[in-house]
Amino acid sequence: MSDLLSPSSAWYNDFIYSPLFAISLTLICFQLSQQLYLRSQRFALLHPTIVCAAVIALLIKLLGISYQQYFESSYILTLLLGPTTVALAIPLYQNAKYIRQLFAPIAITLVFGASFAALSAVGLAYAMGASNETLLSLSTKSLTTPIAMNVSELIGGHTALAAGGVMVTAVTGLCFGPLILRWLRIHDDRIWGFCLGITAHGTATVLAFERNSKAGAFASLALCLTGSFSAIVIPIVVSCLK
């Protein structure tokens, strides 16, 4: 029995490096993190995105599994990000009348907000002496993960670094977004949701839905528009600068 449980056994290695283990680990960690988050009265630093990522990173490190191996084994979960993003069209449809009323402010905010999100990250990284590959990867940090990875690969960035930038942006948005909005005394659900969605993508959209459906709808709108706008504009700008 001890031989079967030994890290050197063939069964153990086959299981540890299999998609079954990676997917099960991800889902179990997320479920436990979600319970912890709810019991903490939704404390921002205990959000499942933060806790689950930290726990999985620690476990795969201890088990000797590389990030690339884990990513490839759990890739089916990454593929589900696409349909999940498309499903955000439902709350958009339900709140279409509010969106039509604010078309001009939304368009102006989108252009300035998405541009600042990309330029601020690139500018700070450039000032710190980052490489061109890093600059290109960080330009997508405010896009949802599947779009950020595809755009980063298209313009010559590094997909893993782009995903890391998205994660850091998500954590920052979770921790400081609501605090800044309350400090500025912004209580309008439409502004609240759109600001979170345009800066911290899908993770902040989930947070907006925790507030109410209207905030979630505007966060979804910001996420989709920012992704579409940036996916078109960033490659054009990069090609013009080369």
From TrEMBL:
Could you confirm whether the keyword Transport appears in this record? no
GO cellular component terms, semicolon-separated: membrane
The topology of this chain with respect to the membrane is: Multi-pass membrane protein
Provide the protein's localization: Membrane
**Which Pfam family is one of those matched by this entry?**
LrgB
Mind listing the UniProt keywords for this protein, alphabetically?
Membrane, Transmembrane, Transmembrane helix
- List the InterPro entries hit by this protein, alphabetically: CidB/LrgB
State which residue ranges cross the membrane.
15-33, 45-67, 73-93, 102-128, 160-184, 191-209, 215-241
Q: Does the keyword Ubl conjugation apply?
A: no
Protein's name in the database: LrgB family protein
This protein's species is: Dasania phycosphaerae
